[in-house]
Amino acid sequence: MESVSGALQTISMDGGLVELACNTMSSGRGLIGRRRGGNTWLRTGLIIFLIIFISLQINFLSFRGSSDPNSELNDSNAAILSMVPAVLHKFLTPRPRNTTNNVGLNGTTGANTAYNKWTLNISDIKRNIAQYNLQQTVYNEDIFGPLQNDSVVIVIQIHDRITYLRHLIVSLAQARGISQALLVFSHDYYDEEINNLVQSVDFCKVIQIFYPYSIQTHPHEFPGEDPNDCPRDLKREQALIKKCNNALYPDLYGHYREAKFTQTKHHWWWKANRVFNQLEITRTHSGLVVFLEEDHYVAEDFIYVLKLMEKTCKESCKHCNILSLGTYLKTFNYYGDAKKKEALRAIKQQSIISAGQVHPSWTFQVLPSLYQHSQKVEITPWISSKHNMGMAFNRSTWMDIVGCADYFCKYDDYNWDWSLQHISQNCLKHKLHAMVVRGPRVFHIGECGVHHKKNNCESTAVISKVQQVMEDGVTEEIIS
């Protein structure tokens, strides 16, 4: 019975065929021997099946990995377009032109389409820039009428990140009251594709200005990079021996000037002077001027909230001279968590002192109480790192700032906002104070730029998060 028992064990382990094994026990050793042979074939077949199955799985995964690289791009593009009303898709969709590659809506490049840049030499670019700045053409003025003193002027500083600019324009197109505003696009990089995009804006008045002292137009001389400039990390002693430009004046950290960084500060100061003092359409304008950048994104009610903040300033905060609408996604704890923490903090404070002594951190309520949490404002000294995005001020504030031009231009830092902070602390009779809206109306969507280079510069996820934040800000429940 040992062999029979062995047969039973083998059949049971290989196939689980206990009933079949029991039926064959009375047939003798010959049948059991043949069953053993059958098991060998069964085992061999099973092994072959497993090998084929694994091979098919490997081939399938390999096929997926080598699939059309445009499929992921197309999915991403579709996701972006789904966030935008169909009538505004024209601002997101590049027009093909002699295409060999494809630039996606989120900044990625596919294998089948792309844009060939116009090839203009520096002389052509300078001539075109001079013509734009001389003509001061205001697009759509015949449709929307002249600029009024209570209209908002929106100044957008642009370099070459057209992908982000497309999304900013889409957000502006959806803003309430935008038809009464003036968009001033201030460029420090001349590009016909960007010009075509800007000139396609049809929902308000538009004017373009071009910073005439850019790196693009002065690549081998100041304010660009002169061949005799001192290298950034050259020691002062070596610079003196070399007699390179500015050898006597490294910065506070021992570094020499880098044109690509300093251009942003130069451009900011030039465009503010250009808007307040030189442009025919704005040089007598006394209303608010909002400063944005190409990688910002605005909420639908940002103009409405801005005007309410302006009214509140006139009535309740005479010393407020800057309005701030923006914040950074990575540093602002939006709505849910912040709301809970504020409630817990209030409870903790009330356990220590009486309720009448508790001063709310957000002092003014500029909108009806229906959306109480996200529509309050704070009064605070202006801090460059916190209140530099979506900031707005009027001519009166500008006159105070421009009176401290030396403090701005000679301050040893290439950031315009830090230089403005220096003015506030060391020159202004009345320091800059900001009214800051708690529920931000301007968002930063740029993942890549002058200071940051990443492998993935897609804007899809960031824009989706911004839209979710704005939606939550309107629908959230109120803490009583």
Automatic annotation (TrEMBL):
Entries under InterPro entries matching the protein: GlcNAc_II, Nucleotide-diphossugar_trans
Record Gene3D superfamilies: Spore Coat Polysaccharide Biosynthesis Protein SpsA, Chain A
GO CC, alphabetical: Golgi membrane; Golgi stack
Entry keyword annotation includes Nuclease: no
Catalysed reactions, as listed in the record: an N(4)-{beta-D-GlcNAc-(1->2)-alpha-D-Man-(1->3)-[alpha-D-Man-(1->6)]-beta-D-Man-(1->4)-beta-D-GlcNAc-(1->4)-beta-D-GlcNAc}-L-asparaginyl-[protein] + UDP-N-acetyl-alpha-D-glucosamine = N(4)-{beta-D-GlcNAc-(1->2)-alpha-D-Man-(1->3)-[beta-D-GlcNAc-(1->2)-alpha-D-Man-(1->6)]-beta-D-Man-(1->4)-beta-D-GlcNAc-(1->4)-beta-D-GlcNAc}-L-asparaginyl-[protein] + UDP + H(+)
Residues reported to bind substrate: 157-161, 188, 263-267
GO molecular function: alpha-1,6-mannosylglycoprotein 2-beta-N-acetylglucosaminyltransferase activity; metal ion binding
S-S pairs: 230-244, 317-320, 404-427, 448-457
Major localisation: Golgi
A single BP term in Gene Ontology: oligosaccharide biosynthetic process
Pfam families: MGAT2
Localisation: Golgi apparatus membrane
Cofactor names: Mn(2+)
Class in the EC hierarchy, top level: transferase
Membrane topology listed for this record: Single-pass type II membrane protein
Transmembrane spans: 41-61
Pathway assigned in UniProt: Protein modification; protein glycosylation
PANTHER family, sorted: ALPHA-1,6-MANNOSYL-GLYCOPROTEIN 2-BETA-N-ACETYLGLUCOSAMINYLTRANSFERASE (PTHR12871:SF0), BETA-1,2-N-ACETYLGLUCOSAMINYLTRANSFERASE II (PTHR12871)
Similarity annotation: Belongs to the glycosyltransferase 16 (GT16) protein family.
Entry protein name: Alpha-1,6-mannosyl-glycoprotein 2-beta-N-acetylglucosaminyltransferase
